[in-house]
Amino acid sequence: MNYLDIELKGINERGEEKIFKLSDFKGENIILYFYPKDDTPVCTKEANIFKESMDKIKKFAKVIGVSSDNIENHKEFKDKYKLNFTLLSDNKNKLKKTIEENCKPTSILHRATFILDQNGNIIKFWEKVDVDEHLEEIINFFEKNINS
After folding, report:
1. What is the pTM of this model?
2. Phi then psi for 128, rounded to 5 degrees?
């Protein structure tokens, strides 16, 4: 199965619920980050870092957060913290498992980030993320490798 065509329910940056496929974002670089659970301390910190840094990030890529939480939890999380990016509900771990098969990480993904280019190819990934330093790693990657 191609990870670009897996359909997942999600909430876009405007709070609208719809079905998404990563192929819907072709033509844009994507920061696809997996996190364990909505509204927990580290996951909230990570989401807020992305939200607060959106002006830096949006010149390089679109941010999409993915967890196994259901769509209702995503709505509450997004509203509570006024998140300005898309959240996808991978409650059956289809996307996560398919990306693991494509990337062959050394560990099972728990908190990980993938950079997808404009054609949907995974061009970089971090399988163990330190949320305090991660945004800087992402920005540095884009500045060195991708024209904004």
Report:
1. 0.93
2. -135, 115
Return d(Cα 89, Cα 75) in angstroms, integer: 10
100 touches 77 (CB < 8 A): no
**DSSP character for 23?**
G
Distance CA 101, CA 2 (A): 10
Q: Which two tokens stand for residue 107?
A: 């560990």
Instruction: Give the pLDDT confidence of 42-57 residue by residue, as tens digits.
Output: 999 999 999 999 999 9
Which domain range does residue 49 map to? Answer: 3-145
Does 103 or 14 have the greater pLDDT score?
Answer: 14
The total number of structural domains that make up the chain: 1
Instruction: Please give the Cα distance from 142 to 148 (Å, whole number).
Output: 8
Could you give the residue numbers annotated as active site? Answer: 43
pLDDT tens digits, residue range 71-127?
A: 999 999 999 999 999 999 999 989 988 888 877 766 556 789 999 999 999 999 998
The CATH number covering residue 39 comes to 3.40.30.10
SS3 string, 89-143, reads: ECCCCHHHHHHHHHHCCCCCCCCEEEEECCCCCEEEEECCCCHHHHHHHHHHHHH
